[in-house]
Amino acid sequence: MVDNQNPTQAAVFDVREVTFRYREVTALESLSLTVQRGKRIALLGANGSGKSTLLRVLDGLAFPEKGSVQFCGEPLTEKCLQNPAFAYNFRRRVGLVFQNPDVQLFCPTVFDEVAFGPLQLHWPPEQIKAAVQKMLEELKITHLKDRSPHHLSTGEKKRVALASVLVVDPEVLLLDEPTAALDPRSASQMIDFLVGLRGAGNTVVTTTHDLDIVEDIADECFVFQAGKVAAQGSPAEVLTRQSLLEQTNLLHAHRHIHGTGVTHSHPHLHSHKH
Amino acid sequence: MNFLERTLAGFLTALEQSLDAEDLARRQGLLQHVDPRIKVVGIAALVIAASTAHKLWVIAAIFAIALLLAVASRVSPFLLARRVWLPVLFFTGVIALPAPFVIPGRVVCTVPGLDWAATAQGLKSAAYLITRVESAATLSVLLVLSTPWNRLLKALRVLRVPVVVVAIVGMAYRYIFLLLDGAREMLQSRRSRLMGPLPGPDYRRMAAASVGVLMSRTLQLGGEVYSAMLARGFQGEVYMLDEFHTVASDWIVLGVFAALTAAAIYYGR
Hints:
The complex is a heterodimer of chains A (274) and B (269).
Chain A: H1 7-10, E1 11-22, E2 25-36, E3 40-44, H2 51-58, E4 66-71, E5 74-75, H3 78-81, H4 84-93, E6 94-97, H5 101-104, H6 110-120, H7 125-138, H8 154-166, E7 172-176, H9 184-196, E8 203-208, H10 214-217, E9 220-225, E10 228-233, H11 235-239, H12 242-247, E11 253-257, E12 263-267
Parallel strand pairs in A: 3-8, 3-9, 6-7, 7-8
Antiparallel strand pairs in A: 1-2, 1-4, 4-5, 9-10, 11-12
Helix pairs in contact in A: 6-7, 6-8
Chain B: H1 3-25, H2 36-52, H3 56-72, H4 77-96, H5 99-102, E1 107-111, E2 116-119, H6 120-145, H7 149-155, H8 163-191, H9 200-231, H10 248-267
Antiparallel strand pairs in B: 1-2
């Protein structure tokens, strides 16, 4: 039974003083943060700030050189994941959608792709077929089911990648730049879907540097800079800190050309609220 | 166009042909409706019958059956001629060409000016080789053209091909196109910055560097794909969903294949 008053038990992930390096490049440096159950978290940061690395660490695909990561109160280590029972439980509960969908779509058809996860979890064939069908319908990609991934557009690939993770109904969803490289319409569809996750009670951790979508997809933000958390707060709090956003390369000078041909620029946050 | 670009263009043509094949495999035709496992077994049996037959008319009959199957499956004979018959005739012809002149027997004609005598036994041997290869190749290509690649791979399991081999080939087929696209873009970006043809040593250096970059990308992609597999619960064992459903008409087709194979083996002894 989870005690929501106790922060340790309510934490899905507890990251303590984690340092991770790619050879000589430090991706995460003494980073600490806690992901609470049922929260929608946005990890904000410029390219190379360590967001994607943290997602890999949270998904047990990379292991820190220093520090510790706990998943629901249990240590998340390479050794733990070698235990089939722990690995089964962890993979069943945590899903990661990669930034590059081509990495994630390795099966010959969309149907096989979405069925891959349930097959690894040894679900009965009839249950797998029903779950795959339901997920394809939910993401409106049933018409793609016999197609090969190399015939799909980037938007379609992203939706298939999402379906391939959501099909096992993970409690925790890790999304790496879900709207990256999408055309405006596909990005909007993806955001609509992420907004729809709000009521489902899942814990969702999304990396992005798209400030426009943060208020829609997150309850809490962590701003990353050079492998560290530079700031933390609600989207409303973080998005009003202009100097922080400029310092972390999340805000840029936006240029306007007026009718007279005069150009001026100023830091600009795009947001559309109705 | 240099060697590297020509090779790449060849691969990309193969990619386009594979896309055509996927379209053909989804057409409404006779073989397209048959369970892929039945097709694999039936066509393999006919290929074996064609390869072992000792009578030319039996091999020709199998070739005729292949042609009928192609027409019934809406596969154009012109497509078969372009992709199978002419290339096979050329390559097998090169191998079979000396046979009429080196195999001893009854002389039927001589090459004017060269005094090379072609024997009946030699011509027969060449005809056997060419018709066998043409028949087997036509049947095999029909199987590939009438079956989506992923279903064909899964159907190979009926021949006891291990599931891990099927999965590896499937993944290789999936990623070869991605890497080819990467290689093409790399060469095009390089060409867009060149003022003219490179001198030989520079070109070779550039080609070697491109191969190295592609190799490095392949390794990186391989690592990422493995991570993506792990993230979805892969623990070293490959599992596959069997989606085939055999209906009564499939058993009838299997019966026809069995009868034709038996007849070919009997009359071809």
